[in-house]
Fold this protein.
Amino acid sequence: MSKFNEMKAGLKFLLSYCLMRFPSQTIRHHLIRSWGMKLGAGSLIYMGAEIRDPHNITIGTKTTIGHNCTLDGRGGLQIGNNVNFSSEVMIWTMQHDPQCSNFGIESSPVVIEDYAWISCRSVILPGVTVGKGSIVAAGAVVTKSVEPHTIVGGVPAKPIGKRNENLEYTLGNQGAIWFV
């Protein structure tokens, strides 16, 4: 990577870092949309989120992204409608290849389908699809795709239950515009 590209990437990260701590949800959402993120109506991104390559991220309607979440768009990230991310969730679409002799990078998109609930401090790794209505328990590390309406937990995450399939709730639009 050239010095110019390193400086550009560093500046982009710094701007994103500062922007996502700005205490106006309306201004944050306007700016991240101007950077190319597709953010559906009624969706909320709370303060402190770390967003990498927003132009590769699509978030559906009425979805809530909690405080201090990491959304890695470098490999492509698609989040559905009425999805809830609790605080400090990390979604990674790029990682180092542990089998590569020169510590190379591998990338694969992540898909989070409608009505999923990703609980606090869980981690979802590249190439994973979290099925419709699924729940990822707090602290879980998801290395493989999750079937619809399945509850997973642990490290690595494994099925621990099933969820009701009749989900009709609507998230987002809590009304606050400052300090969220």
Observations:
- The domain at 3-162 is CATH 2.160.10.10 (UDP N-Acetylglucosamine Acyltransferase; domain 1).
